[in-house]
Design brief:
Length: 244
């Protein structure tokens, strides 16, 4: 597989993981770059990262099936617990194919698995946009911050859910910084989703959101819009609380 196109390689690895799941079932959710690519503008990443249920026997069976397909355990952290290790990395082909397992040891991680979307095109359960935002707020590396922006710009977000878990994980300052950069006031972030349906009516746009409809003038739009019958655009709250 060394000379295979990267996109084809990822598709083959996803198929392999689905095949292994059928033989050695394990509750899990795709996170990391592959999950970001599902919800937003794709960026290249070769790793498949998962949050997996704390099931030592299930993890052992799953890893054994991967080993029979050429994977080796490269690193393990927190082994010896009845619930399994905290982290495990497997690789093959010199690291070209890589799989990371983060074992669910908290209520939130269990929830990530429970809430995962099951109808993804590649057949792997994918963490929801909200859970991805929280996970990336916790990691808070530069690439995580970029991923958050791409997810938020592409998907409607339940900000109340995000704010709750940001508080639990003590990353509220990072969330407030994010909301300020997005132009969403924290107190009203639940009111208008980052992505709304906008309908052109003369020189005004009527916004349909989870709150009452509002009207703004076209010059107030910060993003470029197409003047056709129906467009989707990103409309944000500025720091003064006005739409724009």
């Amino acid at each position: 597989m060394d000379s295979i196109d990267p996109e084809v390689r990822q598709r083959l690895l996803a198929d392999l993981l689905i095949e292994v799941l059928a033989i050695a079932p394990l509750r899990l959710a795709l996170i990391g770059g592959q999950a970001t690519n599902y919800w937003a503008r794709p960026r290249y990443t070769s790793d498949f990262d998962f949050t997996v249920a704390a099931d030592a026997n299930g993890i052992e069976r799953f890893v054994a099936e991967l080993a029979s397909r050429g994977f080796q355990v490269i690193r393990t952290e927190g082994g010896g617990s009845p619930s399994g290790p905290d982290f495990m990395r497997l690789e093959r082909n010199g690291g070209i194919d890589a799989i990371d397992f983060i074992v669910a040891k908290t209520e939130f991680q269990d929830l990530v698995i429970e809430r995962a979307v099951l109808d993804a095109p590649d057949g792997l359960p994918v963490a929801t946009p909200e859970d991805m935002v929280i996970l990336k707020l916790i990691a808070n590396r530069s690439k995580d911050q970029r991923d958050i922006f791409t997810i938020v710009e592409a998907q409607p977000i339940d900000w109340d859910y995000v704010k709750h878990w940001a508080g639990v994980w003590e990353v509220t300052p990072a969330l407030e910084k994010l909301l300020a950069e997005l132009g969403l006031k924290p107190a009203r972030a639940h009111f208008v989703q980052p992505c709304l349906n906008a309908f052109i009516e003369r020189r005004e746009i009527s916004l349909t959101s989870f709150g009452p409809a509002s009207t703004i003038r076209l010059p107030a739009i910060r993003e470029e819009v197409e003047l056709n019958d129906s467009v989707s655009t990103i409309v944000r709250l500025d720091p003064s609380g006005r739409y724009g």
